[in-house]
What does this fold into?
Amino acid sequence: MIHYCIRKLLTMIPVLLGISIVAFALGKLSPGDPAIEALRRIAVEDPTAEQIEAMREEMGLLDPVPVQYGTWLKHALSGDLGESYLDGTPIGAELLRRLPVTVRLSLLALFWTLLFGLSGGICMAWHQNSAADKVLSGVAVFLLSIPGFWLAIFAIILFSEILHWLPTSGIDSWRSYLMPSLVLAASNIGVTARLTRGSLLKEMGQHYALVASSKGLSRRSVLTKHAFRNSLVPVVTLVGNYFGGILGGSAIVESIFAVPGIGKYALDAIYTRDYLVIQGYVLFTGATFVLVTLAIDLLYAVINPKIRLEGGVR
Amino acid sequence: MGGEDIQIRHLTVKFPAREGWSVAVDDISLDLPSGQITGLVGESGSGKSVLGMSILQLLGASAKVEGECWYEGKNLYRAKEKELEKIRGGQIALIPQNPNQSLNPTMRLGRQLREVLRLHGNRTGEQGRQYVLDLLRELGMDRPEQIGRSYSFEMSGGMNQRVVSAMGLCGEPQWMIADEPTKGLDAVLRRQVYHVLKEISENRIRSMLLITHDLQLAWKLCGRICVLYSGVLVEQGGGSELFRNPLHPYTRGLFESLPAKGMHPIPAPVREKGEGCMFYNRCPLAKERCGRERPGEYQPEQGRIVRCFLYA
Amino acid sequence: MRVRRSTWILIGILAILVGVSMLAPVLAPYEPNAIDMSRIQEGPSAAHWLGTDNLGRDVLSRVMYGGRQSMLLAVIATSCSLLLGMTVGVVAGYFGGFIDTCLTIVSNIFQGLPGTTLMIAIAGIMGGGIDSLLLSLVLTSWVSFSRLARGETMAVCGENFIEGERSVGAGSFRIIVRNVLPNIIGNLAVVFTTRVGRAVLSVASLSFLGLGLQPPTPDWGVMISDARGMFRSSPLLVIAPGACIFVLSMCVNLLGDALRDYMDVRSDAGFDK
Amino acid sequence: MLEVRELTKTYGSLFGGKRFTAVDHVSFSLARGKTLGFAGKSGCGKSTVARMVLRLIPSDGGEVLFHGTDLNRLSQRQLIPWRKRMQIVFQNPEGSLDPSRKVLDSLMSPLAVHRWGNRGERLERIEQMASLTYLSTELFSRYPHQLSGGEAQRVVLCRALLLEPELLVLDEATSMLDMSVQAQTMSMLREIRQKLGLTCIFIGHDLDVLRWFCDDLIVMHQGRIIEQGPVEEVLTHPKAERTRAMVESFYNWE
It folds into this structure.
């Protein structure tokens, strides 16, 4: 188990480094000259060539790229991601302030995904090939095919404007999280339900399940006590991917529901061409995702004793 | 010990195939007398495992089972699921083939064993634990406590074989069905399995159905032997008599192809399959009649039944 | 194995969607961008079956045109991802060792970034448009192909028949082309299908956010984005393009399922008992 | 014809951990037309030896002299002409044929690799070998999953014989087959061996089959040869303790 944890931690490092390189590269590739932007911020509207050159020198833009990366990474690790072009606020602090909202929203969506996805999948597998299975399968395909933003528009019209049950935007109370998180979870619920169904049916067809029924266990017991836990293995493996989808997709949902999370911050920054914010957003989301994936990997080891005991290869 | 006989009448099992049905077991009637080991011998595709699994109704939803199987006054093929759950493991237990795949990889072995105790029988708590430990020790395991805490993938195939055997015994059943216990094992493991089965049959459960392709194992263990060929029961008789003097041409051919007997093969199909005997196309002694008509069951001597016109 | 009737229906619907989009210049009753300020936000009528939008453009014509770019983009981007991912995955899986380790680390990095995040960032920095969409779609989806291809290749290479080929003296290239690829292409095709569906949704989402295709391009995502505030007054402006995206993506998903079932049946055909 | 000296293979992880010697300084020689058997528990290294002789896996030391040439020193490209002179048949018939290709395509492949003749000649050669292995040409248009185990194994054998190898390695080639199919395959093998003058290496665990098919026998245990000699001699008067135990447990169950 310890071996497994250490290995997982070690594989995290190149991934985090890679993400930081991607984020850095995105910043480098962004149009516009950071020196001019910086001068503009200190109210130099029409800088001369010397002023620009001096600013470049000061900002380290003349150093070789790896050195620039090193400096940037050092700053980033200490939480300094630069300042917004727009209002000069520190980006790191702003992202950190907004992060809990996004994480709360994403975790809630993950919760819905697991709750409805697993229970739907179990229900489908239990009633395999019956009408209930077909209806739920239809619902699952519906959920994973519907465009999230389209669903969001309908949800707002129905629940906020017509029924007045839920607030349209902002995050004033827990009720504000309800609609965005469900919209965010929709497609993942469909995917999880289908995966769980398939995985459960596969496990129910395994030899050990047959042997379990030969001991006199009812079908229900075979499913709940034997097959279910094994069927979770592929589901949990993919939960990390779903969380990635949720975290990324939260930007769209945040923008529609006006939720002040990091996704909304990044999208607003795109409209105002505030590239450093986008860079910070990529770094933050990547790091959050990697950490959550790590947590899921550890959960995976709990479910699968083979990994816990042997540190087996995934 | 002992329990009642199992009587199978006109069993036919079909599976859906690409076109129509494929028949795995074709109208077999068979008595499995209690108090002895009956061997069900045949090669792959002969339907021996299907027949064995049909007794416990574990063939899966796609199989179509026709016929009757009487045990303690009940027709198992028509029994309700609740009744079957009582019988499975409690009255008739299974020693499955492929022990490594027969155990749940994410559940400790001890729990899988105690599960049977909870379902059948009245041993609970410490008493049950002790019972399982004794059982494991009896089957030749040195440190049973440790095994209870392990998972199946930590154990060797031979160990898992003993665990599944113990699992079958936990419910103290009357009957045991052993499904291909030596499949894919090397000589050493095969001998171990033989000893486990012998131990069980001598001290715990006398009534057993041994499904196997392993003629030597059948010969060593079985009081009676039934030979299957493509879903048809071609010959039955007492173990030693059958081995000394096989009657059906297929049984003879099968024995001749044993490595110890010089591996003389059964000829490849020499003629078209007819409407009649299943073995017609490969039979060296086939007559014209065999291609037209199905042979019935003939009884050339006491206790032996052959489906072949040679004995009509 | 015969193709089921429901699958034919799916293929039919898809063919209609694709066909109408392709033939839009012939079929559409109006120019998609023809502005007619005298008929703003009209309801359905004989002249405009689906009504008009806030600039008096014919909604039906715009819907007919609206899938052209996103469908094409989705198919092209996914094909590129397939080629890239398959090459990387097969090479990593077949040769193993150091190459495999390097490629795995690279794909882990791409897997470590949520796809939508990367797409938003790329589109945000490069500005919206077809090339940034293409780039971000390929960058975010090639990993799923390479992972699958790697795993499948490793499984195939564990089989004896590959050793058999090697033992008669066949070279790596020959084995990859003649033995490995035919055995893994089926499962890649299934993933390809579902990925095309996802790509359609991604293009629509980005266009909706203003980061993909740009107005006045007649595109479903753009149309929904434009009409967002007008739902109460003219709901068809949102419903019609959205329904098109939905039906398209659902058909593609169901087609993927059918393909998967077909593969399963083919691999289970050896069943005999 | 074949001489193997001090062949060794170890497995182990890159970062230390337990190193495990699968084959430990194995030496033997095999004369033309003879058949050498390998026996031992599963995992004793006998299959690894066979794969190293054919250089399907690289060895960590030792020489494989085939007609005096050390195969271990040849590059993959130099090895190609040698490949057709030695062939292998594996244990599981299903895995030995490419599931995505029809039987005929699989049979064509070795001839195509060695650019042997034109299509007509190839077909003729395949038919010739098919009749030797009792393969009906009807099977040619089938996929592997449509074959029975015995049929699949005969296809593999036919394929191995196409290039007229001198050395044929049979790696538990019949142990997954039914008794009657095994008898059929083995008697066919004996017939072919005589007709083509093949030299064989036969790996198996059924001592009766080994006795029936082989001239000499090597018994391995944990990667080492513990006994070798004429098959009757080894099986009737085993010298090593483990060989005795193996023979004992095979013939005497009590």
